[in-house]
Structure formats: structure tokens, C-alpha cells
Amino acid sequence: MNLSLKHLSLSLAIILCCSGSLSPLAAAKQPPAAIPPGFKASDLMLQTWDLVEKRISSSAQLQVSGTAGDQFVLLRSPSVLTDFSGPGLRVSQHQLGGNLAYVVSIEDGPASQTEQTYTATFNFQMEVPDPI
Predict the structure, then answer these.
(1) H/E element, 86
(2) Residue among 3, 105, 18 nearest 50 (CA)
(3) Phi and psi angles of residue 113, each rounded to the nearest 5 degrees, phi first
(4) pLDDT confidence of 33, banded at 50, 70, 90?
(5) In whole angstroms, what is the distance from residue 22 CA to residue 45 CA?
(6) Is-contact 70 43, C-beta < 8 A?
(7) Count of helices and strands (H, E) across the chain
(8) Average pLDDT over residues 91-118
(9) Is the dihedral of CA 28, 11, 70, 108 positive or negative?
């Protein structure tokens, strides 16, 4: 099998109980991040990564459970969110620990007053840094 770094395709299924840091390089170099106070853990995350030249592109699915106002850390910098779709969910940017983070919140509505399960799809990209 002939694989090059210019076009390496990775398929990963990641079941996370803690979505503190989802950037691929951070996951490889650090232990799982703790969930920041005021946030909940996601139920499930499935990701497919493509590495082309020095950029990782990912498409992913997210599943969370909760009620209106519950928040979940989706991504942290250096990852850049490029697309997000999730009925009953909204995504926003926050500063967490001095770094940019994308946070998913359950929107307020009649169905969100009791615990529900929500799903979303999203895409993100991240530049691969040069080795040290």
C-alpha cells in the first residue's frame, strides 16, 4: 500500500465521554481535557479526517443530551469550524482558558424543557504545524 503525506485519508470513529479537546493533534499529544465548569460532556462524536498537504479537514457527527441552556465544548483552537447544522442547537465562539472555543448550546423551546437527545453535523479544518 503506497500512502503519501500529501493525501492521507483517515477514518476514525471516536466515542467520547469528554469533548474537551477535539483537535487531532491535541488529542495525540495530550491526555483528554477535563470538562470546563458549566459545560456538559457530549454523548457521541464520530469524525472522518482527510489530510491533504498540511491541512486536516474533518466531517463529523455530534450527539448530546440535555435541556435548554446546556452547553458543550465542540472544538478548540487551532481548529476552525467551517459548517454546523443541528436542529435545536446553536454554536457560538467563547474564550476558554485564553483560547478560542466553539460551544454548542441547546436552544430554548417547548421541547427543550425536558431532557432530549440532539444530533448535529459539522465540518472543521486545522493546519498541521511543522514538527518541532
Answers:
(1) none
(2) 3
(3) -80, -15
(4) low
(5) 10
(6) no
(7) 1, 8
(8) 91
(9) positive
Answer whether residue 14 shows pLDDT above 80. Answer: no
- Report yes or no: 99 and 79 within 8 Å, Cβ to Cβ: no
Section 7-34 average pLDDT: 42
Residue type, position 4, single letter: S
The confidence band for 32, taking pLDDT boundaries of 50, 70 and 90, is low
Q: Tell which phi-psi region holds residue 29, choosing left (phi > 0), alpha (psi between -120 and 50) or beta.
A: alpha
Question: Tens digit of pLDDT for each residue in 62-103?
Answer: 999 999 999 999 999 999 999 999 999 999 999 998 999 999
Cell numbers placing 17: 465521554
Hey, how many other C-beta atoms are within 10 angstroms of the C-beta on 107?
14
Q: How far apart are CA 90 and CA 8, in angstroms?
A: 32
